[in-house]
């Protein structure tokens, strides 16, 4: 019995789009944003296709970290530059120089998008006024690289910044007590890579 020859028609092509590191999902759940060397690729989750890319494909300035808030994305590069984009149009809105003494390893916006926290390999966390582009706080106390950072507002409306580092500790800074030492939570035996607040903000997990 002779089998008929089968013909296959290519429907789609997928190329490499992620080189490791950070990724995020847009608020509407439609897009995946992920790092690809010096670019942030934006993928349509349903079609699995890259719809646009942010930045320039320059291997001399690879991405170290980024933070997403609504239509805005701030990208930290290993050459110590920070760039703010409208990620829906890939338009660069601002560029400025980091005041960290080493690579920015993590970053996040506060819930209103008015403040940006950047954690660095210089063991510090900087707080930035997003609108005016200057840093308002230089938070010290960690003894190793900062790996994760989070804003927390207490019941009395005081803003805190919580960070975790390679030394296995969690640091809690009160932004309203300038120069004060942070509260320190210990217990981990290795790097703190992520955490989340309990819904009533009484526990860190």
UniProtKB/TrEMBL annotation:
Keywords per UniProt: Repeat, WD repeat
GO cellular-component term (any): catalytic step 2 spliceosome
Pfam family of the protein (one): WD40
Entry-linked SMART domains: WD40
Keyword Repeat: yes
InterPro entries listed in its UniProt record: U5_snRNP_Component, WD40/YVTN_repeat-like_dom_sf, WD40_repeat_CS, WD40_repeat_dom_sf, WD40_rpt
PROSITE patterns, per the entry: WD_REPEATS_1, WD_REPEATS_2, WD_REPEATS_REGION
WD repeat windows: 97-131
SUPFAM superfamilies: WD40 repeat-like
Listed GO MF terms: RNA binding
Annotated protein name in UniProt: Uncharacterized protein
